[in-house]
Amino acid sequence: MKGNAIDLRGVSAAYGSGRGQRRVLEAIDLEVGRGEMVGLLGANGSGKTTLLGVMAGTIRPTAGRVELFGRPMQAWSRKEVARSVAVLPQSLELPAGFRVSEVVAMGRTPHAASWFGWEAADHRAVADALRDADAESLADRPVSELSGGERQRVLVALALAQEPSVLLLDEPTTHLDVAHAAWLLTSVSRLRQARGITVVMVLHDLVLASMWTPRVVILHAGGIVADGAPDDALRPEVVQRAYGVSVETVVTEEGRRVVVPHVPAGTGVGRGP
Amino acid sequence: MGSRRLPARSTRIGSAEPMSATTAARRVAFGPSLGRSAVVIGIGVGMLLAVAVASMLAGTSRIGVGDAVGIVVHRVTGFGPVTWSPAAETIVWELRLPRVVAGMVVGAGLATAGAVFQALLRNPLADPYLIGPAAGASLGAVIALLLPVATVGLLGIGLVQVLAFAGGLLAVIVVLAIARGHAGTPVVTLLLAGYAISSLLSAGVALLIFNSGERLGAVISWLLGSLAGASWPRVGFAAPLIVITFSLLLLRWRSLNALLLGESQAAHVGIDVEREKRILVGLAALSTSAGVAISGTIGFVGLVVPHLVRLAIGPDHRLLLPASMLFGAGLLGLADLGARLAGGIPVGVVTALIGAPFFLWLLRRSVVGTRSSR
Predict the structure, then answer these.
(1) Residue A218 φ then ψ, to 5°
(2) What ipTM does this complex have?
(3) How does the average pLDDT of chain B come out, rounded?
(4) Which residues of B299-322 are buried (b: 16+ CB within 10 A; e: fewer)?
(5) DSSP labels for B256-319?
(6) A23 to chain B, minimum CA–CA distance in Å?
(7) In this predicted structure, what is the pLDDT of residue B65?
(8) Tens digits of per-residue pLDDT, B30-43?
(9) Core-most of B128, B190, B210, B313, by most CB within 10 Å?
(10) For chain B, how far is it from start to end, CA to CA, in angstroms?
(11) CA-based angle B296:B297:B303, to the nearest 5?
């Protein structure tokens, strides 16, 4: 395999057809190098999830070219894509009645080598995935008995069982409290280093994005309005344009700049004396 | 919602310890164990044998176990001394055995198809009749029954069976064609199209019933679902179709399991969802139509059996499909034995009488269960 992990050239996407068509992405150019970790930001409805779907090969663009490791997406079969790209969806109802290890084993579907059983490689991959997602202790638990944080660990393990080169995450921290969110982003960062995985994740939290992702891409109305290191890309005027909210920049003790929403005057939310 | 606790090893956040150093790779168990599978399959096979033997013995003519087994062994292998009357042989071999085997074949086909539909629709209360095969088969059969020509059988297969089979398949093909849009075949559209086509075909059936005159009895008897006309040729027609579709479906267990994650995640783990849906619906429709063709529309087996089996052994299709097949066969065989002993009422009435209240109980249970878990 050669080339960038993901290459998008002039990609447009839309839902529906004919007169009722709603355009979601407009002429997106984006390169994601191997081993990069990219945060995809933007307001609700700006096209982030659609862009992730295009990268996963499940949404076919209406125009433009999509390449995965230098090979056009159309040339990949669904199974081939799934051997290279894993997706952690925004929400997923885990099928009742299965144990955690059984659901994680479903990540081996694209690798299945025999008609009926699992190979040693499958057992190893599931064990590694459970370990790396910190879900070993959950292996024998019924999926219906998991808490929100535990479910997210299982979903990470399911994705890792695919042994992907690219991991796409859609708002992985949305339903998590701050500790679980930090755990998840730290884990993903480590996996990226340990396994050499390319990571693209949709994030809503600008603070988490500026802390954890070395590169952010900001979408607005289906186009890219900023692309770069968080310190450069997350400028107040860009954020204001992308989200329609005024923000202020705060510098952390470690010297990182993060943006937080600006509280308008007269809201009764004041700084203390 | 349970209390939010930190993950057990959250203390590792920020530490420099490499992730791979935590544990040595160990073998993680997943999927149904061999022992458990053997027990489930063993019970299923045992039930089939018991029902088969009981069905050969039960009836107005008294035939002993030894004779019944002897007749079957003699007929199948050609060995053994003949200690029974020719009448007993006719009763066991030409009447009772084909009937119980037909019941088992139909039950196997319906339960297998039911398990597949429940996975496809991600709804444990789905039924193979939902997308039209029953209504299509009914119209085909009723047309054949009312044709003014004598229904000449070819190799013992009547026009009724042929038209019922074709009608069932045709209805599903039409439903699939209607429900297919540019973005694939949404399951909801499939259900709605199935409902509309079924209604249309049922209207056709009703119209024919209204004009059926003296053949009304035959029409009603077919519609109620009955195994009374079972014969070896009919078994020979349906059994290969049902065995082959079952085998092909069992080989797709990974797809069926992955589809339980939902269509979009199934695609993410490598399933070509649209193609797989068409294949699975097609195979399930084939299995259902083959069964319905030789028995009429027998209700609730396709719905209740896979649901019950799933409750007992879990949703993994590697075991769920064979177990549904075996218990569907056993239960319909048993229901038909009951129907025969109850004075020859149609077996469809028996399955509905037992199945409908049972279905309501499941429905009630799921409603109450949902409320208390939220």
Answers:
(1) -110, 125
(2) 0.91
(3) 85
(4) bbbbbbbbbbbbeebbbbbbbbbb
(5) HHHHTT-HHHHHHTT--HHHHHHHHHHHHHHHHHHHHHHH----SHHHHHHHHHHHHH-S-HHH
(6) 16
(7) 83
(8) 767 778 889 999 99
(9) B128
(10) 7
(11) 145
| Of the candidate ranges B15-29, B202-216, B260-274, B357-371, the one whose mean pLDDT is the lowest | B15-29
| Rounded distance between C-alpha atoms, residue B209 and residue B110, angstroms | 26
Considering only CA atoms, give the Rg of chain A. 20
Joined tokens for residue B329: 């066969």
Q: Determine the topology of domain B99-340+349-366 in CATH.
A: ABC transporter involved in vitamin B12 uptake, BtuC (1.10.3470)
Q: A268 to chain B, minimum CA–CA distance in Å? A: 32
Q: What is the C-alpha separation between A155 and A161, in angstroms, rounded?
A: 10
Q: Pick from B3, B9, B315: which is nearest to A98 by CB?
A: B315
Domain ranges of chain B: 99-340+349-366
- What is the Cα–Cα distance from B244 to B77, expressed in whole angstroms? 24
Of the candidates B14, B270, B316, the beta carbon closest to that of A82 is on B270
Q: Note whether B30 contacts A58, CB cutoff 8 Å.
A: no
Contact A153, A185 (CB under 8 A): no
Judging contacts by C-beta atoms under 8 Å, the chain A residues touching residue B1 are: 147-148
**In 3-state terms, what secondary structure has residue A41?**
strand
Q: Which residue has the higher pLDDT, B354 or A158?
A: A158
pLDDT for the residue B201: 96
**What does the block give as tokens for B219?**
């029409």
Helical (H) or strand (E) element with B41? helix B34-57
Q: B271 to chain A: which residues are within 8 Å by CB?
A: 78, 109
Q: Is the pLDDT of residue B10 over 50?
A: no
Q: Please give, rounded to a whole number of angstroms, the shortest distance from the CA of B50 to a CA of chain A.
A: 30
Determine the Cα–Cα distance for residues B197 and B148; give it in Å rounded to an integer: 26
Domains defined for chain A, CATH in brackets:
6-261 (3.40.50.300)
* Chain segment B102-118, per-residue pLDDT in tens: 999 999 999 999 999 99
Q: What is the pLDDT of residues A60-106, one digit of tens each?
A: 999 999 999 999 999 999 999 999 999 999 888 899 899 999 999 99
